[in-house]
Amino acid sequence: MSHKVSLVIKNSLLVLILLVLMQPGLQAAVVVTDADGTSFSLPQPARRIISLAPHITELMFAVGAGERLVGTVEYSDYPKRARSLPRVGNHQALDLEAILALKPDLVLAWSAGGAVAMQEKLQALGVAVYASNTAGLQDIAGLMRTYAQLAGVPGRGEEVARDFERQLDELRQRYAHQSKLRVFMQIWDRPLMTINGNHYINDVITLCGGENIFADLGAVAPTVGVEAVIKRNPDIIFVNGMGKQYRRWLASWRHWPQLPAVRHDDLYEIKEHTISQQTPRILLGAKRICSILHDVRRTRAVSKR
């Protein structure tokens, strides 16, 4: 057999092997770790996926797996393509029949989202459910890698995860060692609510060299009183509101001129969509908060001269 004929046969075999491996039913199994630290596996990457949380939907699109989604929940509105997906409920109630009708080979759930009973029902019916939980900024990149693996696009997942980590690291190196400023973050008005040290927004404040005045409280999103805010004397007040409600929230603080934040007019709105979800968009909110803290430090340093 001539060398050329042998080479042609070898090349043909390689092409045949690649074609076989590319068949959907023959793709390699996927093994990841779930929120409880246990091994979770699929016989092959998922092709029909339902997301049970808005931030999960956004993360799926971020890693290039949005086309794998066949259903999601209310308030999954980013990116725009997510708005056309069928809805299977919301954070208060999920529709089991609607979920099953979409014939998912994977359901992505949020273990902190209060849908444990639904997860158990789905699993009892043989539906694969992967439950995740993000505790802080450092978890977002890992979750993107995991979702990308489950959807069969690990390369894209690694790419966006690394870019997210790179931008976080740049902010950390630039701002984390700056002089501390005391920060109050308002996330609701009536009752007045904030975040503690275990909330992912606290990670943003720390990243920017800020100090959350209510980091020590027990609840992740505690209710506080105006008197408590006054006692802890914040240098800056941020409000994280929807629509135009932030204007009313900010205006209400002007009744307390004894606060440094009010006296220096350091009252700022952080748009909800830039910081309310544990997705790459949180970098938008982080960059704004870091920039504001930087400007406040510089302004106050000048005023002391």
Question: Topology of this structure?
Answer:
Layout: H1 3-21, E1 30-33, E2 39-42, E3 49-51, H2 54-62, E4 69-71, H3 96-101, E5 106-110, H4 116-124, E6 129-132, H5 137-150, H6 154-175, E7 181-186, H7 200-207, E8 210-212, H8 226-232, E9 236-239, H9 245-252, H10 260-263, E10 267-269, H11 282-303
Parallel strand pairs: 3-4, 3-5, 5-6, 7-8, 7-9, 9-10
Antiparallel strand pairs: 1-2
Helix pairs in contact: 5-6, 6-11
Describe this structure in words.
The chain is of the alpha/beta class. It folds into two domains: 26-162, Nitrogenase molybdenum iron protein domain (Rossmann fold); 176-303, Nitrogenase molybdenum iron protein domain (Rossmann fold, 3-Layer(aba) Sandwich), CATH 3.40.50.1980. Helices cover 42% and strands 13% of the residues. The protein has eleven helices and ten strands. The chain has helices at residues 3-21, 54-62, 96-101, 116-124, 137-150, 154-175, 200-207, 226-232, 245-252, 260-263, 282-303, and strands at 30-33, 39-42, 49-51, 69-71, 106-110, 129-132, 181-186, 210-212, 236-239, 267-269. Strands 4-3-5-6 form a four-stranded parallel sheet, sandwiched between helices. It has a four-stranded parallel sheet with strand order 8-7-9-10. A two-stranded antiparallel ribbon has the order 1-2. A hairpin with a 5-residue loop joins strand 1 (30-33) and strand 2. The longest helix is centred in the middle third of the chain and has 22 residues, at 154-175. The protein is elongated, with a radius of gyration of 24 Å.
First-last Cα distance: 89 Å
Shape: elongated
**CATH topology call of the largest domain:** Rossmann fold
The sequence of SSEs as H and E is: HEEEHEHEHEHHEHEHEHHEH
